[in-house]
Structures are given as C-alpha cells and as structure tokens.
From TrEMBL:
InterPro entries: AAA+_ATPase, ABC_transporter-like_ATP-bd, ABC_transporter-like_CS, P-loop_NTPase. This is Multidrug ABC transporter ATP-binding protein. It comes from the Bacteria. Pfam families: ABC_tran. PANTHER family: ABC TRANSPORTER, ATP-BINDING PROTEIN (PTHR43335:SF4). Keywords: ATP-binding, Nucleotide-binding, Transport. Belongs to the ABC transporter superfamily. PROSITE patterns: ABC_TRANSPORTER_1, ABC_TRANSPORTER_2. SMART domains: AAA. Residues 22-253 form the ABC transporter domain. GO terms for molecular function: ATP binding; ATP hydrolysis activity. The keyword Chloroplast does not apply.
Length: 339
C-alpha cells in the first residue's frame, strides 16, 4: 500500500484534548488469567519528555507495545499523533521512532549494514538520502568507530546504542524509548541524556520508560507512575513533587533519639544518611525544632528539603498497596509477556 494513494482515516474525534501526542483510555491487557495492564488512562503532552516509571512487572512495556500497535488491547483505545489505532497506524507510525525491549538485528551484519536495512524500510526516507541518514545516526549515538564491526561482537551497551540510532534515522514527532540506558556505562548514560535533551529542544515529544528514578528525575518534564498494571499518578514532574509535600532535613548526632521523639509527637520522621527527614504535611519547622530541643536532641542544622522522586514514588506505591485497590491484578514481568 502506498500511503499517498489513499485518504488517511479520520483523525481523533472532535472534542479530544488538544496538545496530546498520545493518549490511552481504559487500556487493558489480559493474558489468560493474568491482568498485565488494567484501565490505564495515559496522556502524553506534545513536546514533553514523559517518564513512564515503575518496577519490572508494572506494565510499562506492555503499555508501550499497545501504544505502538505491536499488541492488541483486550479493552480500551489508543490515539497516536491524532489517529486512532489500529486504523490510523500507517499514518501515525512513520512519525514515531521507537526502541522497545532491546533491539533485534542480524548478528552477522555490521552495525552500519543493519542500520542501512532499517533505513531502507523507512517510508519517508528517500534512497539517495540513506547513507547520510545512517552516518548521522551512528555519529549521534557514538558508534561511528564501531560501525564496521559485526553486530554479534557488540556489547549490550553498543546494541542499545544501535537500537537508539535506528529510532533516530530521521526527524520524528514522537520518540519512544523503553529502558534506553539498559547496559550502558555512566558515559553512555550521559550521552543518552544528551540525546533526549536535544530531542526535547527540537520540539520532539519523548516517552521514556524506566525503573531508574534518578534517570527520570534528571531527564523528564512529566511523569506517569505505574504500579501493578495501573497508573497511580501522572502529570508535570515539578507539580507532582511540590504536591508531595515539603520536608525538613535535620542534622544531628542523636538520630535515633530524634526519630523516636518526633514519632512520639505524631510527626512522621525517618533516618537518612544525612540525618533525620521530617514530613511537614501536618506540622511546621518551628514545632519540629521545639520538639527536638525539648527532648534534649542536639540540633546542628535544619533545612527545608523538597520531596524527591524516590519519596514520591514510595508514597504512591505504598498507598496503592495498602489500599489493595488492585488486589486482583497479578504481577507479570513485561519481558515475559506473551507475544
């Protein structure tokens, strides 16, 4: 089928939220008796770098595969770049670059040869432009020097880089990266961060899935937290962190005494490598200091501390577990999901 010869299917129905590169509504995927994804409502704003955060088995990869039309949902709908899937896949997917569950290439071909084959399958890439596009993509991910080596001799990190290069062969409206730093050393991780920053600066929407909280906090503007197959929170990262509540970091040599004194006065506190962290949701900094001084705790320093993504993630997932709202959802590791 030549796309230009047929009229594209109708775009998303009138009334759909503007400014979304992708959206899922009531998305659900069941494998036998196992619920892998359960009623996921996900929104990816245009131009955002959205981090899909969650541990292995939370449904990240299954959600991404349904978003890209690789897996058929059991229920729910997917809208991608203004088109409903699966009918609009032929019009939406050429605008999407993706690296999902690790790359798959021919082991006896070189990195350049593999990437050239990928480029030849791109409907928007003219044949004369393929060598240039391949060279630029290899340079962008730091594989130019190893482009002539056979793929079977690549390290895990190099394979990830080649998969990323395939997603970046030409300008995209949306780039989807599933665990892009898997197998990379610190230098490679920094390079991937730089690529994501460049895409964001160019106006490209990026969806990144990860179980590494530090990576999401360092690279993303928005976040969606998945737990047991469902979205428990999503939105602008800065707003979510601010909504998580302020904290107070107390530097003291009497950590255990301080924690006990605060908890005895109904002030949530826990020990950290830097001292004592106190949740200020239901109290104030002066009350904390007064309580510690009254208990004979030596207070060396007190400073406000914004809620980190790790604290926010722990709070969201622990609350979801305690409320047992998803007790019927069995855990399924994404990489073990049936095709």
């Amino acid at each position: 089928m030549v796309i230009g010869e047929e009229e594209a299917p109708a775009a998303v129905a009138a009334g759909a939220p503007a400014g979304l590169a992708a959206r899922t509504t009531g998305l659900r995927k069941v494998y036998g008796k196992t619920v892998a994804v359960d009623r996921v409502d996900l929104e990816v704003p245009v131009g955002a770098v959205l981090g899909m955060l969650g541990p292995n088995g939370s449904g990240k990869t299954t959600t991404i595969r349904m978003l890209l039309g690789l897996v058929t949902p059991t229920a729910g709908s997917v809208e991608l770049l203004g088109h409903r899937l699966p009918d609009g896949a032929a019009w939406a997917l050429p605008e999407v670059g993706a690296l999902v569950e690790g790359p798959g290439f021919h082991p006896f071909l070189s990195g350049r040869e593999n990437l050239t084959r990928c480029a030849a399958a791109e409907p928007r890439l003219a044949t004369p432009d393929i060598p240039r596009a391949v060279g630029e993509a290899l340079e962008r991910v730091g594989l130019s020097a190893a482009a002539g080596r056979r793929y079977r001799g690549y390290s895990l990190g190099m394979k990830q880089r080649l998969g990323l290069a395939a997603a970046l062969l030409l300008p995209r409206r949306l780039v989807v990266l599933d665990e892009p730093t898997n197998g990379l050393d610190p230098a490679g991780t920094r390079e991937v961060r730089a690529v994501i920053a460049d895409l964001h600066a160019a106006g490209t929407t990026v969806l990144v899935s990860s179980h590494l909280l530090a990576e999401v906090e360092a690279t993303c503007t928005h976040v969606a937290v998945l737990h047991r197959g469902s979205v428990v929170a999503q939105g602008e990262l800065r707003e979510l962190l601010e909504a998580g509540g302020a904290g107070l970091l107390v530097s003291t040599p009497d950590v255990e005494v301080a924690v006990d004194a605060l908890r005895d006065n109904r002030m949530p506190a826990r020990s950290t490598p830097d001292g004592v962290h106190v949740d200020l949701t239901a109290t104030t900094a002066p009350e904390v200091v007064a309580t510690l001084v009254g208990a004979g705790v030596a207070v060396h320093e007190v400073r406000r501390q914004r809620t980190g993504l790790e604290d926010l993630f722990a709070r969201l997932t622990e609350a979801e577990t305690n409320e047992a709202r998803l007790s019927d959802v069995e855990e399924l590791h994404d990489e073990e999901a049936p095709q």
